[in-house]
Amino acid sequence: MSNIVSQRIFDFLKDFPPFNFIKHSDLITISSTCVVRYLEKEELVFNTNDALHKYFYVVKDGAVGLYRNNHLVDHCDEGDVFGIRAILRNDAYQLKAAAIEESIVYALPADQFLDMVQNNLEVHKYLATAFASNLAITNEEKDTAEVSNIDILPLQRVQYSTPVVTCKTEDTIAEAAKLMTVHKIGSILITDSHQQPLGIITDKDLRSKIATGFFNINETVTQIMSAPVYTFPPDISALESQMAMLEKGISHLCITQDGTVNSQVLGMVTAHDIVVMNTNNPSVLLKQIKRAKTFEDLAQIRHKLQPLIQAYLDSELPVDFIASVVSSVNNCITQKIIEQVITTKTQQPPTAFTWLALGSQGREEQLLFTDQDNALIFEDVDETEQAQVKSYFLDLAADINKAIAIVGFEECPANMMASNPQWCMSISDWKAQFNKWITRPSENSVMMCTIFFDFKRVYGDASLESKLSESIQQAVGSYEVFLNYLGLNALQNPPPLSFFRQFVVEDSGAHHDQFDIKARAIMPLVDAARLLILEKGVNDPKSTTKRYEALAKLEPQNEVLYQSCIDAFKTLLAFRTIEGLKYKDSGRFVKLEHLSKSNRLKLKQAFKPIKEVQNVIQIRFKLAQLM
Amino acid sequence: MLKWFQHKNHPGFWQEYDAANKVPLPNSIEETSFVVFDTETTGLQPKTDIVLSIGAFRVKNKTVFTSQGLELYLQQERFKKESAAIHGLRKSGNEIKIPESEAVEEFLSFIGNSVLVAHHAAFDIAMINSALKRMNLPKLKNKFIDTAQLFQRVVPSQQQVKNLGLDEIARYFKIPLHDRHTANGDAYITALIFIKLYTKYIQLNNLKLNDFLKSHQRTGLL
Question: Is B195 an 8 Å CB contact of chain A?
Fold first, then answer.
């Protein structure tokens, strides 16, 4: 250590990435090569296309802005590194760096630093990630660090077999069976003239419908085929395939061009195509759920999912994928509970009904144990039976709610549950309820909408769900001012400024000095996605990332923004989940002092799209004058 | 005549130093090399107290070259318990200590003709000068700047601090007070004060730094 000031520089750097990944003895050497630069407000460090400096910079005090065409693209504050990307790329500066306020920066000789860290994977990984998240536009420096020790098989796209053996509707069962035998396959698809799937026959059908003598082998295949066919897109992962098979109770998946029955068949995936790699995976949990005898069994199984979520997060698997796995398991548990509860009743359900998950469960974004939010729709019945039917379902729902609570999802304190007479209604009553919310918007009703618009059928009659959706779309379409109210609500929580010092923290109550990541960052993105997709006249899909994906397709001009919303949402959701698992709570309140520098950086980047999407909303729904 | 004779007998390092100081300073402030320094001493009497350590950094164009610092610890022939409490330098501490003459030689070769900057510079310069005197050498020849006086002269009167101590002025500029009472720590704080004074007051008001430069002839303390 050459002198005491170098020691100070070392003390400062050692806490910030990437310097925290560097051996102390090396960092001491680096610190002793550092020079200290003072910047006045607005003083330029380097300009776009300037020749490379020998140094890169770390902000010691103050703030330095990075600008592209005079637009601020990033704030660097205490501990932030800038001016290294160009050096790594060995190319002129692409951005301008200038002091936003009076600043002191440490300038570190780049050559010496890079020589020293050239074999330091952590440093390279950090630099790569920082850059990837820094600016959405430059994607040349994506994180290339390989993810080791992760079994990526479940994520790989499934290998489906091609070409597919098919037959026509007019073919006989015997002909189909011969084809299957010749090609040594367990199933055959019946397609139309455009190679779109109409039905499927499997070995099981031959066994249960032909061998039993119920049908004659000379009848056409349409007599015994299962239709419609469950279809999936070609990018389905091995894990998703497994889950689909277990959820639907099928052993053959049909892959079509766009994942619907209205496109050309590409291939088939069978259970044999998928190798179950380890025993601790969701598909095993799903099996266990199906075999569970008691609600306590289900609780045990659900708790086994927590370490799995943690492992997935540790492996940096995409959080929307993890969420869909979790939601499959949750749905499966709920289905099992409902089936179980029905068997305990002396009377079968008097009419068709549908169990809906609401809010984050409805959006399939529930990764942690939170309160349960659900509702029940039953088919319209004769007025004279109405009261009796409703009381049957209320009773049923109460038992289901209790069982779900045993599994670990506490009953909702606001009573947003199907056992509440308000949220257990006939389809006509539901339609009326939504109409009332939409045509007579108030602060309260808009809040209800943010929960109830995100519904997903978990159990029961699909037609009830789609009837309700249609009715909602009609009402929204004919009463557009509703969207303005929803818009105002979506803008209620402006995102924190990107500047960390000006981070909005809760200033009162039990969460004093903590940051409410749900209300201030996640919900604004969720609300924006819901509003924008409703404006398009649809209330599907429900998950926030899928909504933004759909929006990106509908509005190609905003594709970059929506993509950055997806990235931000994933970051925030993953962050909240990690926090929640760590502190065994809902992860909602983040203690600022617990945040590492790299997490601060990540969060900071995630706030930017919130502001941008809120601007879009403000302009689109002309909300400025209403606020 | 005697003077001329003595001069001829000055050691090589002094002659080099002397020659360097005959080179005129650059015209532009950006090119001017400054050495910001601080001394820790046994007391406040330049005639009887001695220098215990010297810390110095080069400053050029608003950059502190902390990588090119000077940090010297001097052997203590005289030791005062009272001052040891302030600077923490013990008579036989762990630092590698060199004789005063060696320290002066290193200091001179480090500063060359740079403009010297120190807080209450006259005192530090007087301390060095009295060491030079013990070596039978003339006084320092560099131009110098006193950050305390500079502050007094350029910062508007309503913003003046009570006394012109390093602590008060550092607080005024929100400079963290790390490593106070180590020669290097104080030199670093002084360097930041100097740069801030320069950019905030002199440059901003189109004043000429030259007007604030003092000649070695005017070290009033001696």
Answer: yes
Domain coordinates in residue numbering, chain A: 4-134, 157-273, 289-307+319-341+359-478, 484-626
Give B-chain residues touching A32 at CB under 8 angstroms: 67
Measured in degrees and rounded to the nearest 5, phi and psi for residue B101 equal -65, -40
Q: Across-strand partners of A109?
A: A55
pTM more than 0.90: no
What is the dihedral sign for C-alpha A384, A389, A395, A398? negative
Which CATH number fits the domain A157-273, given the four candidates 3.10.580.10, 3.40.50.2300, 3.50.50.60, 2.40.50.100?
3.10.580.10
Class of domain A4-134: mainly beta
Closest by Cα among A482, A427, A487, A477 to A455 = A427
Distance of residue A5 Cα from the nearest chain B Cα, in angstroms: 6
Q: Helices (DSSP H) in A51-143: which residue ranges?
A: 85-89, 110-117, 121-134
Whether ipTM > 0.90 holds is no
Burial of A126 (0-12, 13-18, 19+ CB in 10 A): buried
Residues in chain B: 222
The 10s digit of each residue's pLDDT in B61-114 is: 889 998 878 989 988 765 566 666 666 666 555 678 899 999 999 999 999 999
Instruction: Give B-chain residues touching A40 at CB under 8 angstroms.
Output: 199-200
Count of beta carbons in the 10 Å neighbourhood of residue A235: 10
- Scanning every residue of chain B, which has its alpha carbon at the shortest distance from the alpha carbon of A62? B174
**B69 vs A: CB within 8 A:** yes
